[in-house]
Every structure is written in C-alpha cells, then in structure tokens.
Design brief:
Chain lengths: 237, 227
C-alpha cells in the first residue's frame, strides 16, 4: 500500500496539490502534516470526494518544532505500512533586511523551511531506503538570485535547493528520487506577506504549481529529479 | 540460514590515517555501512557477527541505528591477526553456515551475496582469473607461475560453520597461519570441494589511499542508479 506524506496542506500550493493528487490515484494513503487542524480537515474533506476518507490521515505538528518529526513518521508507518513519497511544501517567511532580522525570526524561518524538511527526509529515508520512492522539496526562485529584504527566507530556500542536489546523489543507490521545484510568484497567503500590494489575480495560481508537482510525483516519472525546476508563468500585462 | 561473519578489525595503518579505512566515508557513507545496508536486504542472513576493536562498538551501534539496519548485529573482539579474528567471530556463530566477508570490500551487490548463497556446494568462494603475468622472485626472477591455473581470491566466502571451526582449531594447534579461510580448509580437508563462483571486477579491496579514489568511481559506475 503506497503512502504519500504532504506538509503545508492547510492552504495555497500544498492544499491544491493534496486535492489534485486525490484525483490521480498514484498512492493508496495520504498522510497530511500541519499545525492547523481546521484547515487540514477542510483539505481532507475536499480530498474525500475522490478517495475513501480512511485513506487520509492527518497529523497535527508545528514544523517549527521538528523534534516531533520522528514520532510522527513512526506513527505514519505503523498506520499505513510504508512511505513512498514525501512532499515538503510547508514554508514560512518573515521578510526583513539584515539590520532588522532578529535571531529568533531567522531561526524560525530555518526551522520550518530547512530543519523540518531535513528531519522529515532523514526519518522517511530510514523506511524508503529498502523500496525506493520520491521526495519533492518546494524551494523558491528567491533561493536562486539575491533578494534584498528577504534575507532569512531567500537563504533558507537556497539551502533547500542545495540539500536536494546533494541528496539526489546520496540517495540514488536506494532508488529514491529527489525533486526540487522553485516556483516564482504564486497567489497564496505567503506571497501576500512578501508582496502585500500585488493583485493576486495577475500571477500564477496554486493549482498551476500543483499540476507540475503532481506530474513529477507520478511514479511513472523517471527523468526530472536532481535539478532545480523553476515554475514560472507567462502573465498577461 | 546464514550468519555474516564481518571482519572489521583492521587499524588502517596502510592509509596513514587516524581513522581506519572501514570507517572513512565512501560516496558519503561510512565504508562499513555499504555492506551492512545490503546485507539487511537479505532475509537469508539471520545475524551479523561483527569482529571489531572494542572502542568502535558504540560508534557502530549508533550507525546501525541511524541507518535503520534491522538484521541483528553482535560484536566479537578483534584478534591480533586476521585468523584470530575469524576464530573469535566463529565462536559466536549460531547458524550451520557462515559467510565470511571483510569491511574493506564494500563493492558487493545483494545479487553477488545471493549467488554465493545459492551455489550448489556448502563451501564456496568468489574468485577471478588473474589478468596479468606473475613471476616468482625477489631481486631476480626465480621462476614462472602458470597464470591460467591461478585464481584471485575475493571475499565473500561461505563455509559450513562446524567445518571451519574445526580447521581453525587445527591451524591454531599447528601454529599455522593462512591469509584466508579457503586455503586453510583446503589444506586440512583437500577432499572437501570448495566451489569457485565467478568474482566481480568491481570487488576492489580498499587498501591504500588511492583505492578510496578509485572506489568513488566504482561506486558511481556500479551502485549509483541515477545516470
Ligand atoms: N507563493 C509563492 O509565491 C511561492 C513562491 C515560491 C515558493 N513558495 C513556497 O511554496 C510553499 C507553499 O507556500 P504557499 O505559497 O502555498 O503559501 P501558504 O498558503 O502560506 O502555505 C504555507 C503552508 O505552510 C504551512 N506552515 C507554515 N509554517 C508552519 C509551521 N510552523 N508548521 C506547520 N505548517 C506550517 C502553512 O500552515 P499555516 O496555515 O498553519 O500557517 C501553510 O499550510 C512554501 O514552501 C513557499 O515557500 C511560494
């Protein structure tokens, strides 16, 4: 029974991905990890239009405390019997320039955007390494070019791109494929924090990013891992 | 069922390194873990008896946990010679058949272990033809060896546990030393067939520093799946 773990399912790209995957039938079980129970329940309800409710499992966890991850992963395996895909979609941003960035804010950003994906990958690989599988990390174009004013966020995404590339090589022997996608601007809660004045209807929508993620996480996809895939949309001006 | 008698007692003196080679990183992973991870995929191997220096036991136990290795591993004390290490390990083997392998040979595939276990003789080894010419001599040539009659001994090897214990006892009583166990078994029991299964060209023994560099290439070519 194939299982897919997804973080960040309460809103935006993660929610759109979870719902779209429930149409695709690639996996038998979905383990949703998040800190907002009501939002997760809403996503699970939307998914259950397409798959049995018993195939959807929700786990309450604040990813800023990644110490709790080993227990959650062990309990997912105990419930579903395997881990075949891991989608690290959750992300946090507190856009600040160097001189106003506090250590606490910097650390919180790294906890959610770097430490939590690292811990999830480490714990999941312990199980995935005998059967192979797929890992997908959502980084950002902000991790690829300088973004004055977004110090902690941009650098955390650069770290995630690098981690993905290293693990592509390190985990290849196990048949584990590591994907990394870097979306450009996409109409979500997080984007509103980065660009409060932008009209969300003019930019890429979460479903468009979800479509790419679902295509990559399709077990039949065998060629696009190990590279930072930029997802940007041609917009009408 | 088999026990893997895993020799990891070397001190790495030839690498001129504080860390013995079997604990160095190869392709980002400690050399010993390459084999332990693959053996973990073989249900026929019930247990690993790992012969190593006592001070490395806690570090190995931690790695086994970190890498999620589920096959039980027990430790046996390293001896002052390879032969003594094998004897110490054999004392702890609880299955009728044993596979002897060494940590400095990380390039053995799951299928290679399977081929050895499935060989139709209870005592078997991996061996390769010798691709170069060999002569006898030190400062002057003293003779030639017929290359086609020689075999390059690779590990792993498999044996009947009791038989191997018996010849180790004899060798100890005689004060005889052997560099590996097939030679010892043949010396005391020439009538017992020891099957030679085809070895693998990539089954390099990591001995010198240059071997670590070559090893990275072997790993890349033979074990990394993403091409
Ligand atoms: N939108 C863009 O323009 C854009 C561009 C490039 C990359 N990305 C990346 O895309 C990913 C998804 O973000 P999004 O744009 O879809 O924004 P979003 O709607 O704000 O989604 C972010 C998700 O992460 C979750 N999350 C944040 N902090 C968490 C924590 N401490 N514990 C558990 N969950 C936490 C959020 O849960 P809560 O609702 O509980 O906060 C939410 O579900 C992020 O990694 C983001 O960096 C976005």
């Amino acid at each position: 029974m194939a299982t897919c773990i997804i973080t960040g399912v309460g809103s935006g790209i993660g929610k759109a991905t979870a719902i779209m995957l429930s149409h695709r039938g690639y996996y038998d079980h979905y383990a949703l990890i998040g800190r907002n129970a009501a939002d997760m329940a809403a996503t699970a309800a939307a998914m259950s239009c397409n798959i049995p409710a018993a195939a959807i499992h929700t786990y309450n966890l604040d990813l800023s405390a990644p110490e709790g991850i080993p227990e959650v992963v062990a309990s997912i395996v105990a419930t579903t019997g395997s881990i075949d895909a891991l989608l690290n979609i959750a992300g946090y941003t507190d856009p600040q320039p160097l001189l106003t960035t506090s250590l606490e804010s910097f650390e919180l950003t790294y906890r959610v955007n770097v430490y939590a994906p690292f811990m999830l990958m480490r714990e999941c690989v312990k199980y995935m390494k005998t059967s192979g599988g797929k890992i997908l990390n959502v980084a950002s174009t902000a991790g690829m070019t300088p973004r004055p004013g977004w110090l902690s966020y941009a650098s955390s995404k650069a770290a995630l791109i690098s981690i993905s590339e290293t693990l592509t090589a390190e985990l290849s022997e196990y048949g584990i494929m590591v994907y990394c996608v870097s979306p450009g601007r996409c109409a979500t809660k997080l984007r509103r924090r980065l660009a409060p004045d932008e009209d969300p209807s003019t930019i890429m929508q979460p479903e468009e990013v979800a479509e790419v993620i679902c295509n990559l996480i399709n077990p039949a996809e065998k060629c696009l891992d190990g590279q930072n895939i930029v997802i940007r949309k041609m917009i009408n001006r | 069922m088999f026990t893997l008698l895993f020799l990891s007692g070397g001190t790495g003196s030839r690498m001129l390194n504080a860390v013995p080679k079997q604990y160095m990183l190869l392709a980002g992973k400690p050399v010993v873990m390459h084999i332990l991870e693959r053996v973990d995929q073989l249900p026929e191997i019930a247990e690993v008896v790992m012969v190593c220096a006592k001070e490395y036991e806690p570090a190995i136990a931690l790695m086994l946990n970190q890498y999620g290795v589920r096959t039980p591993v027990r430790f046996a004390p390293a001896g002052s010679t390879r032969q003594e290490s094998v004897r110490n390990g054999l004392a702890m083997v609880a299955t009728d058949n044993v596979i002897v392998h060494e940590a400095a040979r990380p390039f053995v595939k799951v299928e290679d272990f399977q081929r050895l276990m499935e060989a139709n003789e209870p005592n078997a080894m991996l061996g390769e033809a010798i691709p170069f010419s060999v002569l006898v001599g030190h400062e002057y040539v003293e003779g030639a060896l017929e290359r086609s009659s020689l075999v390059n001994v690779q590990l792993p090897q498999k044996f009947q546990t009791q038989l191997l214990r018996e010849v180790h006892e004899k060798a100890m009583a005689d004060g005889a030393t052997f560099t590996e166990d097939a030679a010892m078994l043949h010396k005391y029991h020439p009538e017992v067939p020891i099957k030679i299964c085809p070895g693998m060209p990539y089954n390099l023994k990591l001995t010198t520093r240059i071997d670590m560099l070559v090893g990275e290439q072997i790993y890349d070519e033979v074990f990394r799946k993403r091409k």
